[in-house]
């Protein structure tokens, strides 16, 4: 099947077609999502939370992200693969952003990178885009700034709506091909989606955005932590896996596994 490319996401917006994005951090899960038709896979720095249980996204490194990214690239033959630039790998200067972005495309094979930040990060986006690195912006609630923002909270309420719009506009003007809107009021997201030429991707941002994204362990019920309000749980993988491994353990302890047919003559 044909690879999803950034131009297709732009076409989706122009023809009023929506698209789906899910996080992925390993090759097998990436393969399952790819075969199911998920258009975009995000190697999110949420790997710090869901793969490593580190509490926030801040500590994950470029080298750690590269391992997850390579794995997802190897597992996906159709989806567009986007990787998050981790905290501390792009903020200092446009040159630092280009250097990190180049590492992602060169060493992991992802097709694009995503970067958190307001309008002040536009020079980073511009520099990466001119170096040939497709960039997704990420505005609204940005988890890497959790401490600066005073915790997990909806952004863009009331007066602050104009700021979210300005930040998203700055990303578009700097050359981003899409922007993630995280935890902003649905009406604000709708306004941003219609003000921008490029497609926006929502998470806790209502249904007016062209794309939607969720963390897969949240939406498939593997994560036993506290889930945000915007998550819809489509399966109970934790329950499925837990009961399967309990059966395995019971069989091992009782001697029922392995049975004669699992052994060699
Ligand atoms: O890291 C991540 O998973 C993300 C998405 C939730 C947008 O940035
Ligand atoms: Na992220």
From TrEMBL:
Catalyzes the reversible reaction in which hydroxymethyl group from 5,10-methylenetetrahydrofolate is transferred onto alpha-ketoisovalerate to form ketopantoate. This is 3-methyl-2-oxobutanoate hydroxymethyltransferase. Pathway: Cofactor biosynthesis; (R)-pantothenate biosynthesis; (R)-pantoate from 3-methyl-2-oxobutanoate: step 1/2. Keywords: Cytoplasm, Magnesium, Metal-binding, Pantothenate biosynthesis, Transferase. Binds 1 Mg(2+) ion per subunit. Its main location: cytoplasm. It is found in: Cytoplasm. It is an enzyme of class 2 (transferase). Its EC number is 2.1.2.11. Homodecamer; pentamer of dimers. SUPFAM superfamilies: Phosphoenolpyruvate/pyruvate domain. Mg(2+) binds at residues 45, 84, 116. The active site is at 182 (proton acceptor). Gene3D superfamilies: Phosphoenolpyruvate-binding domains (3.20.20.60). It comes from Nesterenkonia flava. Its cofactor is Mg(2+). Belongs to the PanB family. GO terms for molecular function: 3-methyl-2-oxobutanoate hydroxymethyltransferase activity. 3-methyl-2-oxobutanoate binds at residues 45-46, 84, 114. The keyword Transferase applies. It catalyses: (6R)-5,10-methylene-5,6,7,8-tetrahydrofolate + 3-methyl-2-oxobutanoate + H2O = 2-dehydropantoate + (6S)-5,6,7,8-tetrahydrofolate. It comes from the Bacteria. Coiled coil: none annotated.
